[in-house]
Design goal:
Helices cover about 75% and strands about 0% of the residues. The chain is mostly helical. About 20% of the residues are buried. It comes from Cylicocyclus nassatus.
């Protein structure tokens, strides 16, 4: 009986380690940076938002691949972030609503 309980606990522990987190920390950081950059620039040129995001993102991440990560993130996520902000979602709630944090 004791062995069965230990085996069950071991299985639960292993499953907890294998199940991925709902979000990635880097994505959460990038989302917050994107919201911080995009919120005051709504209605302005998206190219300027992308450039400002790229600069801020690289400062925040500080990893060798940050350039690729930042570029991919903003290409995939800028439109939904801007849409949420324009729809009236509070900046502090955007990343949670988009499941990035």
């Amino acid at each position: 009986m004791r062995s069965l309980i230990l085996l069950a606990l071991l299985a639960v522990s292993c499953a907890a380690l294998v199940i991925p987190a709902r979000f990635n920390v880097a994505e959460c950081v990038m989302c917050k940076v994107a919201v911080r950059v995009a919120a005051p620039s709504l209605g302005k040129d998206t190219l300027k938002i992308e450039q400002d995001f790229d600069k801020e993102c690289k400062k925040e991440l500080k990893v060798p691949e940050e350039s690729k990560l930042c570029e991919k993130y903003i290409n995939d996520h800028l439109d939904p972030i801007v849409h949420e902000l324009e729809s009236g979602t509070a900046p502090k709630d955007v990343c949670t609503k988009l499941h990035d944090c």
